[in-house]
Fold this protein.
Amino acid sequence: MRLYSNRDDEGLKKVIRKLYNFIQSFPDPIKWLYDKAAMYDNNMSQSIWFKEIFLSVHKENILKHHGEFWDKLIKEMIGIVKKVYPDTDTSVPPVCIPECEQYWGKMWEYICICADSVKALKSAESFDEVGSAYDTYIAKTKLGTAVRAYKKAESPIEEWQYYSNKYNSMREDLLSSTSYLPNGTAEQFNKYVHSEELKQTIDDIVWITVLFSELYENAKAKKNVKTFSDIEHLAYRLFSENENIRNEYSLKYNEILIDEYQDTNGLQDSIFTLISRDNKNMFMVGDLKQSIYRFRGGDPTIFKKKYSLDSDEIEIIHLSQNFRSRMQVIDSINDVFRFNMSQDVGDVDYNDTAALQREESRECYINTAENARNDYKSEFYCIGKSKDSKESSSDYLEAVTVANRIKELVDNHFKVYDGNGKYRDLKYSDIVVLMRSTKVNGELLQEILESNNIPSFLQKEEYFEKREIKLMLTLISLINNHIQDIPLVSVMRSPIGNFTENELSKIRLENRASSFYNAVKYYKSSSDDLTKEEQKLSKKCKSFLKDLDRWRGYVKMKSISALIWTLYEETGFYDFMGALEGGDEAQANLKLLYERARKYEESGFKGIFNFIRYIERIEKRNEDLSGAQLINENHNVVRIMTIHKSKGLEFPVVFIMRTTKNMLASKPTEEHRIQLHKDLGIGIDYINYENLYLKKLMFTKYIKRQNQSETLSEELRLLYVAMTRAKEKLIIVSSDKYKDENEFNQKIQEAVYNAKTMPKYIIASNAKKYSDWLIPSIGISLNHWNFIPRFLAKTTVSDVIKEKQETIKVKNIDEMREKVQKLLEFHYERPQSGNIPTKTSVTAIKEMAEEELTRKSDIEYEPIYMMQKPDFMRTEKLGTQIGTAHHQLMAFFNIEKIKTLTENNYADFVTSELVRVTNDGQIDSNVVSDKNIADMICKNVTSFWKSDMGKEVLSAKKVYRESPFEISIPAYEYDNTLPDEYRNEQIILQGIIDLYFEDKNGDIILVDYKTDKCTSKAEQLAVAKKYEKQLILYARAMEKILKKSVKDKYLYLFSPQSVVKLD
């Protein structure tokens, strides 16, 4: 038996990598492998799989739901029959009661068979008995769906429908559950599952994984690399293998406090246990209902087991009171999870202890006349669209619904509680829109919100902050200029250089005066009497410099993209990153860097120096590969985020979208041929390459079923996390496709009817999407929900996302090939125009003027050597925040109030304004929490208002602050090195003018504030020169918009508290 074909080993590599990554969350990964391999046997009918899983765990699970259900159902249905036929003889077996068959029809026989099958399974203790029970009652009996027309029943249609619904749902569950039981004789079973081949294959996989683990650990040791899980395993081994150290730490900590305990994995819990005092000084805080990190190793069963311990082993403190949400929100959440969450789905019995509650005496929301008109009842929008309608997607309809509801809430002055019995109007920043993933539709929602003039913020991950990209760009920078200490040390310390910290320290101590490059180059070069360790390090230095010289030589021979790929291959960095956790994503990022370099060169640019400067400019402008982020979450914006990122946060108004997306859908990959589970171990398919067929074995299917069940539980907990973020208003939007409005209404009615008739766990465990939980539970609890169904037969797509699509009409296949070939071979005749932005900012043009990117096709400029400061020595970030604080205070300053004060009172008033503007959320409180910074800002702003310029502003006819604008400019003003054919392309220029005013004579005066540090007159003139072009563009924009000339342009410099007039 082989897992993969002879063509290559790629599939096997992926399987081993998946298994290796999976076992890292266990205290002893290798022991886990051997233990799980032992579950397989050459005689699978006597294996651990049969004895401890199928005959024990799985059988008990079937009996848990079916053991008493069928007998109770039979008793209940017989009771109904006896009321109609009082003389019914119930002393005979139920299947032999003619009145029951007459009243209930064929369904009665099926129900009796189900009851008998469960009894037979309950008494089965051996392989043969289990096989016999399955063959007799399941395999050889056609347990059909209850159909009234099959044999006419005398029971009223409503009554028959009620019980047939129960039967059909539990029948499906019984058939599904028993399908995992082995059947036939032991000999037939072993032959079917290929016991000996199966056992050998599992042993081989474990052997390869153990070997890979050893080799990989050695490779990481040579490269001085440790993953986070490596550090955890080292800590575990340190404590488990050294009693003295374990006891030392056990005595050191009087208490061990663990937060978010529900997301702990087995390895972490083992470390906590080792250093505890027999678990008696561990204080664990967690909420099992919020365990949502199973995908990265979190194991909620650890918390669950602790929770179920006897009271003499553990003390449980229930923190049952909720102080976040209004009772309207609490009640609506409880309705959903009382119906859906249980030990079977969600791992929690959502009873009175687990439910959200708040005692009336602890009510934290005080209702007043201000909020009397508010409706805080939770809302569920259930939107249907025609399957035939292709005009707009479900995601588009949900986005439009969200946008419209936000506008209604804001426009109607929805009130939110601001504490101390006060209410205020809802702001955009009070609102969050949550979805399972924002990758696909986050930007669509953002577009719809912006088209409705609703500001929003969608967090995008920064590409250049990825570890693999930062290191590769550092290496490229080092190749361009090797006299850079920080990049050199970074590369040497990385897996590329393999130097340890001790080795780097020895190199520096040997030569402290020169650059680090020279220290490496001349390490022990003049010494003959070297120790073995020194000889080894000297050889290592020479080898590294030899590699670096070779890579520098490639610069003259290779394109940038070819150089990057050569570096991937020669350093092994690409393959190395692929082996780490998240390796697929890391390799995709590295490919993207290669593609970026290739496209850069295709645009006519050349040279490694130019490429580095190009990347620096992208980073500097915060454009990244995902585009610029002009606003952030600190502004007054609607936030769009994933449910995972919202954990721990709270918002007055919460929207939840995309509740009809399949939770369990996943694309089949080669890794899916192996199924892994912490308790059930390893499951594989049987593949016969000689006869070309694949067999899904019950072990693999059972593990997959268990994984899906646990994923389903986590998804329900994830929905709980999403809904409990709401403080005052919860709104869920759901949309799906239906044949027509009748089907839409019928499906809703059917879901609500099932909720009233079927066992709750059946509905919850068969959910494929969030709406499968929401519609039935909300549909039967309308006291706490506004259920708003809408069917849209026809919809109109907004111009925001509408795209014209042209189809290629062909007469024959040859014509189609020709047209496709032309499309594939198309080359844009003006490739450089792709580097001219359609829109830019004044700041970007100012930066281009400062450091112009040289574009020479034939000449390579000698690199500029400089010593770069590390990030921790740079202050640009804080400086930018301080500058922003100055601007925000000036923008929101109460000018009318200061006009009424004397200069002696200016300082106190400026201080109070700083507090007010900060409290309003316009200034980052973290910045001004530093008293020195706050005092500096107040001093600078006070000096402005006391200056001649400030007095002119206060006496002006009209004052305008933070005025945005957009005008068009020719492309050469953006980049004066563009070829002639591009110079007159039009670019939209946008910016924000700090302040302009109309003086007593009606003239326009332009003022721009700057916080650049400059003390001498020469430094001030240099700053003025730096911003000259920026103010010229500001003036031109104002003149174009106001149809009036600008008389004077000034820079106000806060640092020296001086004014510079620009010509």
Remarks:
- The CA atoms of residues 239 and 274 lie 7 Å apart.
- Confidence is low (pLDDT under 50) at residues 626-630, 796-813, 819-835, 851-876.
- The first strand starts at residue 256 and ends at 258.
